[in-house]
Amino acid sequence: MTSLLDKVAVVTGGGSGIGSEAAIRLAKLGVKVCLMDVNKDDSEKVKQQIEDIDGTALVVPCNVVNSYDVKTSIEKVIQMWGRLDIVFANAGIAGTLSPIETMDVEEWEDTLEINLKGTFLTVKYAIPHLKNKGGSIIITSSVSGNRVFSQPGFSAYSTSKAGQVAFMKMAALELARFKIRVNAICPGAIQTNIGESIHKSPELEQIAVPINFPEGDQPLEHGPGHPEQVADLVQFLASDDSSHITGTEIYIDGGESLLRG
Fold this sequence. Notes:
By secondary structure, the protein is of the alpha/beta class. The protein has seven helices and nine strands, in the order βαβαβαββαβαββαβα.
């Protein structure tokens, strides 16, 4: 594994789940990590975990849909450490699961704003600093909207996740001249707390599609993956071991999406 010592990373949604696990992993390898999260208390707990393993972390409360927040948060990283090498655009919500016909416009907008606009703003304001030496941008997308389309009520979430992959491919080509690599990870079911951000409308049962897999829907492990496994992938994409990989979506789902597609 190519050394990541003394590199600097920004992790949005770094206070929990995949974001916190990836942040801790990078810190173990000597990366200085900025935790950008709307929840300051959660981020402080992750910061303490990082410091307990002699890592270095900075907490910057940030709402990723607010352009001023994102811009100034990244500027704080530069003021603190003078460089930026890795951007993990991970913040996101599942939103409200609802039929398209009855979905509130505000529910659609909230999901697209956080998942898609938040990714755009994070990448946009990181680019000027990544240009100095090149770097790696990693976007958390999903199997939803890319390989899986059978989840009832996921139209907003899946649209945002498909949009992230399209954005990633455009950014990868645009930024290649600056030695900035851009890739997306597409997790399936992972044991995180994103379920807490899911709200189900009463009308959801009306559009449910019955799908049954007698031996489970994760062929590789017969159960959801773990944040540590996703952190393995983030570590690889953050390092120079993936130096010839850009513009690529990588599925990490134990084969789940091959059954559900």
